[in-house]
Design a protein that fits this description.
This protein is α/β, with parallel strands linked by helices and 148 residues long. It is 45% helix and 12% strand.
């Protein structure tokens, strides 16, 4: 997406991994606390860039629309990507050794699947366009994504 649109990407995991290194974060409880702080930081950076006329892509597993309250005028396109809960669990376990240790994927995989089963990551209530992408069977993104 970033390359296709030529926009800066503010990704939750990139921020979290950078801060985890600087703060020497270890363990799931610290990872979760850092995750809360990272969402606040992401919201601040997003507002600052938008207020200065910069279009951007913001990526994360958002579960509350309050992060997007008080945004400067902006055209919002929400791309909601999901998969079956068991697929999410399996993918987390498969890539565990390739990801930064701060994600604690092995410990979190079951919780993520349960939260997805319970509807924990439904699309946010935001104004703008909503595009849903189901990835249990990985789609051809060129066919799924319209020109934004």
């Amino acid at each position: 997406m970033r390359g296709r649109l030529g926009l800066p990407l503010i990704a939750k995991d990139d921020l979290k991994e950078t801060l985890a290194e600087a703060l020497v974060t270890a363990g799931r409880v610290e990872s979760q606390r850092l995750g809360v702080a990272v969402f606040e930081l992401l919201g601040h950076v997003m507002r600052e860039l938008l207020a200065n006329g910069t279009a951007l892509i913001v990526e994360g597993n958002f579960n509350r629309s309050t992060l997007f309250e008080g945004l400067p005028d902006a055209r919002i396109v929400q791309i909601h990507v999901t998969a079956e809960p068991e697929t999410l669990r399996r993918r987390m376990l498969e890539r565990d050794t390739q990801r930064h240790r701060v994600h604690c994927a092995r410990e979190a995989a079951g919780d993520v699947a349960e939260r997805a089963r319970a509807g924990g990551w439904e699309p946010l209530s935001l104004s703008g366009k909503l595009i849903r992408i189901e990835t249990t069977v990985w789609p051809d993104l060129d066919a799924v994504l319209p020109t934004i």
